[in-house]
Amino acid sequence: MDDTERLKPANVAMMARSAMPGSAVAGKQIAAIATLRGFHDIKIEMICEIGRVDITLGQLLKLQRGAFIDLSDEVVDEIAMYVNNKLVAYGEPITARTNYGVKVSRLELRPEIEDES
User: What pTM was computed for the model?
Assistant: First the structure.
């Protein structure tokens, strides 16, 4: 079996299941990770959303540098984190010296890999 055949999802899943008998979910997760190894360098879009606001096109066109946009009256406790427009996690805002960041607090990934064909 060459590398192309070996990395097909069905073959990786079969190898993972045989390596971990009795654990179908763990086998699927290992299979998914093994299948994704070749994709680690692919760039994706990640958005960390702190709030939303509905504005008119007229208001958008009037925005200038330094303009203030009021997102909500609430203090942001959780930041929604999206990868390619799919919610994957929630986090909390943090500062580290002069940088801002998001500390992941809760994952929203599906617990097992499903066949979506």
Answer: 0.53
